Amino acid sequence: MVDDRQDEAQTLQPAAIQGRIVVFTAGGTNPQVMINALSDRFADIHVIQEQPEGKGEIVKRRARRLGWINALGQLGTMIASRLYKQVAARRARDIIKHYGLTDARNPAIPVISVISLNSDNCLQAVAALKPDVIFTISCRILSERTLSVLPCPVINFHAGINPMYRGQMGGYWALVENDAGNFGATVHLVDKGIDTGGTLYEQRVEPAKTDTIATYPLLLTAASTGIAIKAIEDALAGRLTPVQPPGKSALRYPPPLWVWLWHGIKRNIW
Fold first, then answer.
1. What phi and psi, each to the nearest 5 degrees, are found at residue 50?
2. pLDDT of 225-243, one tens digit each?
3. Cα three-residue angle 204-206-212, rounded to 5 degrees
């Protein structure tokens, strides 16, 4: 008679860990993949979802910092990259399947909708939920006012290795700068800066030849669910040990259209 206890043991999942986790996000495929992975590990998870910023708001903000030419060039890249929509969709399905994840919304996870994570409505929801940990992914920068009243550790998932690739499209810029060894993601504490809080964990991965600027963030998200879970476990256990990694700090933005096309045509970095 075949003893199937070993096979059964291999399929058993770790018991869900106690403690309330609240996820801050603007929604989307990548955050949903992460939220589903977290819900498999943690028994008590809630989502507070803000309305995404409009493209007009984003362009105006970048124009104030970088000038209108660069801001419009970045918008052009995001629009042009949609030409890869079908290819990116196939690759996205492959990534999610490879890591054994799902991007389907889980109706068992409560979601509270707010206009902004910096709004009074959001803070009221947090006060009512009394979270032990707040986890942020794909959302706007939290204001100093918001951070000052949050009652627990705030941990962020960032699709780039800090401090060299803060901001946006960290994986893309690592490839462009011939730094493929730092194609990766960081889970870190949140402070008043942009991806400047102490690093908790890093995850590096090698992109496939079919990956592009449209799929790099999803790849890094899917590959990093484990370090997100570890960081939350540490927070719940009171053993967070942030570090300040070496490297020049640089804030990144999506490449302007002409930069993206040049590296894509000349170096096949799309």
1. -95, 165
2. 999 999 999 999 999 999 9
3. 115
Q: How many CA atoms lie within 13 A of 66 on its CB side?
A: 18
Chain length of the chain: 270
Residue 48: closest CA among 122, 148, 108: 122
**Could you give all domains of the chain from N- to C-terminal order, each with its CATH number?**
17-267 (3.40.50.170)
pTM metric for this prediction: 0.90
pLDDT per position as a tens digit, 99-123: 999 999 999 999 999 999 999 999 9
Beta bridge partners of 135: 23, 155
